[in-house]
Every structure is written in structure tokens, then in C-alpha cells.
């Protein structure tokens, strides 16, 4: 089978196995792509979306948003051709030597420092966090101080320490969010959510 045929068939299987569980347009594409990436149907229940988040995220991407990831793995998984077509961009500051040096001097994680530096970037910002709960916690603090106003926070770190608590900081808040409640997540999930948004826009714009 050709790659596009495999993907099409995979989504058909996902839709069938979801059965009676349906989702609004826009959200459905995100949920199904995350399941496609992970083969884990728990995401049909644990992904949480703030009101109108899909359209808000699309608007930011159409306005040249910068997507900030907390791992190079997530960055590598985001569709670069789609970003180029939309005039958006993605970056990860975690491997920057200055970030590493500052984090060591301050005794904090590189994820914390990378969020602080990214908050100073111009234009709409989308944060896609798939690994470091400390990134989410610091981001929430920066939002509370009005030092950054993200167009979207994708909060899907995976793990056991402070993961659940970091995610729950955003649930019900004013910042647009897509959060994977509980312990599950990962860089691949963060990239899948971004791609689901990008692909919807590509189809809508007719690229």
C-alpha cells in the first residue's frame, strides 16, 4: 500500500473503533491524529479543549505564529512544508548554549529558561510542551505576570512527577489550551496536535 493509502485506512479504522463517540469539527481531527500517532484510544477521553480553541489556533497560524516546542523531537515531527505554506515557523531553544549556561547558573531546568526567552519573541506564540512539566509551570507563571499571552498552549508532557499538576494549571483558565489530562503525552503527541491544526488549514486554504 502507498503511504497515503495506509494513513487513510488507519483513520477509517480509528473512526470505526471510536464507534458512537463523536467530536466537533476541528476537535475530531486533533483527537484522531493523536490516536493515529499513539494507537491509544484513551486520548479520546483525556484530551481537553478550551472553548473555540481550534479557530483561535488557526487564526494565530494564519497570522505567522511561532510554535515553541520543549524538545527537538517535537520540533522535528512538525510538518515543515505546512509551516512554510502558512508563513508560520517553529523552533526549540533547549539546545541553545546560552540557555544551557543560564539554566546551570540559576539552578533551574533548561525548559524553564527556554520558556522565559521564548516569551519575549514577537508575534503570536503557540507553546507545544510534550516533555517538561517545568516548562508548563513556568509558562503559567509568566502568563500570570502578563509577561506573555500565548495564542495557544498545548500541554501534553508525559511522566509521573508534577505532570498532572502542571497540566491542570491551565484547565478552565483564560489561555487557549489543548491539554492531555493525566500522565500520558509526549513529544510525538505535541507534534501530532500541531500537525492536525496545520493540515486542517492547508485543506481549507486549498494548498
UniProtKB/TrEMBL annotation:
Belongs to the CobH/CbiC family. Pathway: Cofactor biosynthesis; adenosylcobalamin biosynthesis. Keywords: Cobalamin biosynthesis, Isomerase. Gene3D superfamilies: Cobalamin biosynthesis CobH/CbiC, precorrin-8X methylmutase. It holds the Pfam family CbiC. This is Precorrin-8X methylmutase. It comes from Agathobaculum hominis. Residues 5-199 form the Cobalamin biosynthesis precorrin-8X methylmutase CobH/CbiC domain.
Amino acid at each position: 500500500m502507498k503511504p497515503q493509502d495506509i494513513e487513510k485506512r488507519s483513520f477509517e479504522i480509528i473512526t470505526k473503533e471510536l464507534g458512537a463517540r463523536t467530536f466537533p469539527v476541528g476537535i475530531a481531527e486533533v483527537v484522531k491524529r493523536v490516536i493515529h500517532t499513539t494507537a491509544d484510544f484513551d486520548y479520546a477521553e483525556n484530551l481537553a479543549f478550551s472553548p473555540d480553541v481550534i479557530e483561535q489556533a488557526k487564526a494565530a497560524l494564519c497570522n505567522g505564529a511561532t510554535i515553541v516546542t520543549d524538545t527537538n523531537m517535537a520540533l522535528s515531527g512538525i510538518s515543515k512544508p505546512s509551516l512554510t505554506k502558512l508563513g508560520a515557523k517553529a523552533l526549540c531553544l533547549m539546545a541553545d548554549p546560552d540557555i544551557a549556561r543560564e539554566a546551570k547558573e540559576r539552578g533551574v531546568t533548561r525548559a524553564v529558561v527556554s520558556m522565559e526567552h521564548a516569551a519575549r519573541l514577537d508575534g503570536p506564540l503557540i507553546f507545544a510542551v510534550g516533555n517538561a512539566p517545568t516548562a508548563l509551570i513556568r509558562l503559567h507563571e509568566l502568563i500570570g505576570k502578563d509577561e506573555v499571552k500565548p495564542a495557544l498552549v498545548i500541554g501534553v508532557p508525559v511522566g509521573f512527577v508534577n505532570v498532572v499538576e502542571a497540566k491542570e494549571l491551565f484547565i478552565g483558565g483564560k489561555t487557549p489550551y489543548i491539554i492531555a489530562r493525566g500522565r500520558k503525552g509526549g513529544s510525538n503527541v505535541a507534534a501530532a496536535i500541531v500537525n492536525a491544526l496545520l493540515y486542517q488549514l492547508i485543506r481549507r486554504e486549498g494548498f
